[in-house]
Amino acid sequence: MHYPEKSEPDWTCLLINKLKRHFELAMCETITTIKALKGGNLIMAYNTLWNELVNNCIMLNALFTSYNSKISKNTTFKINDFFTKASFPEKKLTVGELAYSIWKEKVYTFVLGEIFGSLIFGFEGANQELHEAISTMRDNFKQLGEINGAKNPEGFFEESVLEQYSTHCQKQAAQMLKNLGVNKYVRDVFQLRCKTSFFSESLLQKMNEIFREQCVGKYTDVLLKASVEIVEREPAEVLGKLFQLLESFDAELAELASIWQKKVEHDCLENLYADEISDPVRFVKNLIEFNQKYRNFIKVHFNDSRIFVSALDKARDEIFNSNGRNAALMFVRCCNFYLCKSPDASESKSKEMLDQAFDLLFKKSTKKDFINACLEKYACFLLTRLMDDLSLSMELEMHMANRFHNECPDDTYQAAASRMIYMLNDMADSPDLTKMLSEYVQSALTESECTYSLNVLSKAAWPESENKCTPKTKLSNLLDLNMEEISELYKSSKEDYKHRDLQWCPHFSQCFVKTSFINKEYSLKMNVVQAEILILFFEKGTLNFADVKNITEIPSKELSMYITSLVNAKLLISDTKIIGPESKLTLNRDFSSQENSIVIEDPCIFGDEEIDHKVDQKSELRLRLISSRMERYFKKEKDSAMTLEYVIERINNELKKMKPEPEEVRDCVDRLIKKGVLKLTTELSKMTM
């Protein structure tokens, strides 16, 4: 039998396919193994992939050298040798070209996708390692490309980054819009914006263009609709976050911010004014709140103040019946709106509207709790206006202080109004006293790295015997000396001040600290306590929390808030995330900012957004629990009349473990009245089911 002669197989083709398949499997297996890894582990996994690539190149080169006799038998090549000497004679495919193709299609795309998916937008820590890993990726790919004659390998790196970022933005934005709804999308979509320092400025600019196209441009109509819906439902909370985002937009997004602003002004005000007839209480509350909180951004003003006063008149009875303190807050906010500066403000018109509002709410009520709440809240708003230089005119401020003094029913309330009049009169003497004090303080800081000055009266730190508007803070030596100096100035400057004690109002006074970091001069504006703490670090450099507390004698809770504000401003560096007794703090001498003038947030300030609105989450949960227990208790006491004092006593007996404060019980009573569980009788102090 004759057997046909076996033909020689195409060893080149077989070898190429075998080697290519082996290489692909090796890479894919490694990728599959590390897909569950995140954060720093992903960086480690990337290095593993690169080592696998090199090892496979060594193996492929060794196999091929046994096949191709033209290639040197020397197996001790450098990595460049793996990519150049192991050539396939017929297919003209080098091991390096194969490695470049696999690396580009399998490894590189995967690692970039993981970086955008988990590191840039959510991974905290290992920043230096991540930076090094991305730099290594760029260098590795550039090396592969140059060896194999690829055109512009550095450009391919940028193309790959932009392609992966675009895919990530498009996918995530669409998914968020589908799953979260427009309101939450407005808040969360901006987390996708790339702000990492791992890429060049030119690359970041291109990435921001992609963000605008994928996340903003395509959804502008949706976002505009969402902003209107937000105002209808939650004008005080979510809208504020939206405005903060708009304020932070760079020049490229300024056009969108402008469109959004006009849309919000037009549509949102239309919705607010629609409530004027159907729900005057909501109209008054929302309009005051809207203008009060977002005045600096939107500059929205009442088109017709008479509509507002008319709605206020309609809402008056319901406001008083529901909650006297809320009525006081509404009245004070109304006053604050007309007393603040605005582009179209008229002093005569504001005076007319203030008098009408005063007659509508304050003059017609003789309830002491309402009057007391009005004076307390009005004083806080007045402090804020003076501190931030928002007052329309001092004459108008004095007019309102005199109205309070003249309309208050007894001496106790008149005394509180008199303190406001004293303060406004003191303002005239402020510049001279401020200058004298600044010279005195600076003489005590000759060796310090900063220039320190303090506004004494012009920013609402004034002498009065009893200050109820701000918690007491025990101040240390520097400010004690300041107080002594101011007291001496008062005693020598004017006869009227001799019988008045001086007390500090630290949260309503401001300091200006001029200092230099990295050859750049900054003007820092903060309250007196924050300034003192910062000056202490200029002198000491590094201190423990306990050391700062011992030196300043500031209570731990307040000190923690003050230091946190300085850490957030990047003026101090802490070795712990939460500032507390274990924290070690250091002055940040590498501080840098684009702004020359920086305002440091005061964590303890009584601003208009804090009053009756910002409730601690734990306190809110506690009030809900007390309220539910009270509701259960009252359901057993049907049709029985009870005084508020009796309710407080019984609730204290029922909830001994919780030990509710009288104010907490009163708040819970207000909630139950609104809910309809309780109702007020003709006497304010009695309630029935």
TrEMBL record:
Superkingdom of origin: Eukaryota
InterPro entries given in the database record: Cullin (IPR045093), Cullin-like_AB (IPR059120), Cullin_homology (IPR016158), Cullin_homology_sf (IPR036317), Cullin_N (IPR001373), Cullin_repeat-like_dom_sf (IPR016159)
Alphabetical list of Pfam families matching this protein: Cullin, Cullin_AB
Stored PROSITE patterns: CULLIN_2 (PS50069)
SMART domains: CULLIN (SM00182)
Domain Cullin family profile residue range list: 326-567
GO molecular function: ubiquitin protein ligase binding
GO biological process: ubiquitin-dependent protein catabolic process
Recorded family membership: Belongs to the cullin family.
Name of the protein described by the UniProt record: Cullin family profile domain-containing protein
